[in-house]
Design brief:
This protein has 428 residues and is of the alpha/beta class. The chain is 30% helix and 25% strand.
Length: 428
């Protein structure tokens, strides 16, 4: 058993133990025992709204403004000798201040008193269960991370709750989803939950674009099939391993499923990375990569307009809204893309060496490049390039046969051999 801090009676509370109180939606959500314990606090710490809820107490105040590090250090110092209660929204261990406070003080000095979360409260207002709701927080994140996180969760889940901040407002969320081609989604915006000014409204994405909302808000993004009362269970689909016929593509111009699996293994994808898919065709590699890892950005570059249309349609169909189709020749467009962590080259034409040169210069530390080749000429050009640079290289040959019926039995039909070339900087 792991020993945890407990507090049976308010009179037992002594420093240096810090009380971390989840306020729920308002002071009315606190139990009588918690209220009695807070009455013994010598120091109250938290945001202005929470401190005002205990304006009648004579305890000293530490208000959280913008400097979280200084706020936590102050608590660490004063709580050694004085009973200190930190007031936080909802459940402080659910996208709250709890993890940061515990990392500073240590778990043995913090007693957490949880409460209901704003997500619980919102779906209670809607009268809908929330066990299948995916929760994402955009609070304090940069634009790129916020965009990729939002598009990833919305593309994979029918119902998503989103914690916002002053930069990532309901209008920003609506605009980001519309820009990515997200359709058949509605937004529920809960304003001032637990306060007299509380409002909960349901909107089409277009309706939320220019609407003013209270800064204290929570957003739910709901798929159309979620309906008005609870929603359907999400359809079970594979993480990856889709056959070619699942993708809209032209005349067999698609990376075969078995080759895709090996390519993805060699890419060694990690969350938050930037992936370039050059010569993306139908986008099958980009889409499967996005489905198995929460990537930061995925740029699928394709010069043929009809294939770009297929690529965009496939990304929407699989809910991979974070995959950005880029129409143009790779040699011309990659200068405008952010530096990659991973690069897959499925097609390059006569520009192979020039593309590899740009990739080698732009590849981030610990980056990897994976290329497929079906001709000995392409294999040799890639091998020669990487052998002359400070990169380590491996080559894998794939010889795949698939079963086909013949009479009452089966035979094996061989596909064209494929070479998979992987390169990474020496020392990485």
């Amino acid at each position: 058993m792991i020993p945890r801090q407990t507090l049976n009676l308010p009179e037992e509370w002594e420093p240096p133990l810090v009380l971390l109180v989840g306020m729920g939606m308002s002071k009315e959500d606190l139990s009588l025992l918690v209220l009695r314990t807070i009455q013994r606090a010598e120091i109250l710490a938290g945001g202005e709204r929470h401190l005002m809820a205990f304006a009648d107490l004579r305890a000293s105040r530490i208000e959280l403004r913008s400097n979280l590090e200084g706020f936590l250090e102050n608590i660490a110092e004063v709580s050694r000798e004085k009973r200190t209660a930190v007031l936080a929204s909802g459940d402080p261990l659910f996208y709250g201040i709890g993890s940061r406070l515990i990392s500073v003080l240590g778990g043995d000095r913090v007693l957490v008193l949880p409460n209901i979360t704003s997500v619980q409260a919102l779906f209670a207002r809607l009268g809908e269960p929330w066990e299948n709701v995916q929760v994402a927080s955009l609070h304090g994140r940069d634009q790129r991370t916020s965009t990729s996180r939002l598009l990833h969760v919305v593309g994979r889940h029918l119902r998503v709750a989103v914690f916002t901040d002053p930069r990532h407002t309901p209008g920003w969320i609506a605009q980001t989803l519309l820009n990515a081609g997200v359709a058949n989604r509605s937004m529920v915006v809960a304003e001032d939950l637990g306060l007299p000014s509380e409002k909960v409204g349901r909107f089409r994405l277009e309706e939320a674009l220019d609407r003013e909302f209270s800064p204290l808000n929570l957003v739910a993004v709901l798929a159309a099939e979620a309906g008005e009362a609870g929603g359907k269970e999400e359809k079970c689909t594979p993480v990856f391993g889709f056959p070619e016929e699942d993708f809209q593509h032209q005349g067999g111009l698609i990376t075969k499923m078995e080759v895709r699996a090996v390519v993805l293994a060699h890419l060694q994808l990690c969350p938050g990375q930037v992936l370039w898919d050059l010569g993306a065709g139908s986008g099958s590699v980009s889409i499967e990569a996005a489905r198995i890892a929460s990537l930061g950005q995925v740029f699928a570059v394709e010069k043929h307009e009809a294939r770009v249309r297929d690529l965009a349609a496939n990304a929407r169909r699989f809910g991979c809204f974070e995959v950005s189709p880029v129409h143009g020749s790779a040699i011309r467009v990659i200068d405008d893309l952010p530096d990659p962590d991973r690069v897959f080259i499925g097609g390059s034409g006569n520009d192979l060496e020039a593309i590899l040169e740009k990739v080698a210069l732009r590849l981030r530390p610990e980056g990897r490049v994976v290329q497929t080749a079906v001709t000995l000429d392409t294999l040799e050009r890639a091998r020669t390039f990487w052998m002359s640079r400070p990169f380590t290289m491996s080559i894998t040959q794939l010889q795949i046969s698939r079963s086909v019926p013949i009479g009452g039995s089966i035979r094996l039909d061989a596909l064209n051999p494929v070479f998979v070339i992987t390169a990474w900087r020496q020392g990485d």
